[in-house]
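Appendix B, record 7
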Amino acid sequence: MAETQTALRQVVLAPNPSSVSCDPAARRVALYLETIAPAYAARTVRGIASDWRLFSAWCAAQDLPALGVTPEVVARYIAALAETHAPGTIRRHMASLSHLHRAFGLSNPLESSEVRLAWRALTRQKDTRPANRRTPLRRREIEILLDGLGDTLIDRRDRALLLVARDSLARRSELARLTVADITWQAAGAGAEILIRRAKNDAAGAGRLAWLAPATRQALSAYLAAGRLAEGALFRRVIAGERLGEGLRPQAIARRFKLLARRAGIDAEMISAHSTRIGMTLDLVGDGQSLVAVQLAGGWQSPAMPALYARQLLPELGAVARYYGQLAQ
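Structure tokens (predicted):
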């Protein structure tokens, strides 16, 4: 906790103690973020802190207070960010400012018609599609990756990791937290279940169960047997190609997926640890599964994100694609 508080002070109070650190608003925000840190994901708190630091620096340059600002100030800030930031990033900044104003019981300028109009004007002028859209790993790509794996310990681990990531639609942080005890084996020849204990949108830690296909169960069994693994972290580093070490970190999972993609001749630039999650979403929607069913399978709070991913499928599911598909039959 002490390390988290120190990091937040460094971000919020800025590097120059003689200036911003004496700002009462900055100290107020730093104290608030320290207070909420145990209740939110660390990444969320750091994001709010970073967004606040940028906004407060801009306000200081304009000789304006950063808390209790008017809608006109926020509209100007949006215009300033639009010169160098993508709409998605600006949207995140707006959410952070809105959060802080609500937290301190201040009038929320983000709810004003002036700010809404400024945002609408921005989205009409700029392409709001994500510039760094992640590349999905769909069934055909997963099969290519699996074909390149052998029977070494690290290959067995990677095979199990890819298949569990796909079947469970787990985020990289969820994959990194999995343990051997989270697996529930079903009858021989059947699949398995795995418990996703906590997600970034599951503050209460209720968790969710994900079903694993028989092929995934088989890959998991082979990996556990080869690594003589009976407890603790499920996916681990492989040391000298012979033994398992500590659990994989989320960033290591992302790097591994990129490496496997490059080896298979797949463009890995936009491959991430969430590429399996996105790819399975597209495959499920393409198979005719409802967005609500996909939402539950992936642990989303609403069908909105699966629907956003599914927009990539509109051409192949549309009327023109169906027309030519029928002609080919």
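Remarks on this record: The chain has 16 helices and five strands. The two ends are 63 Å apart (CA to CA).
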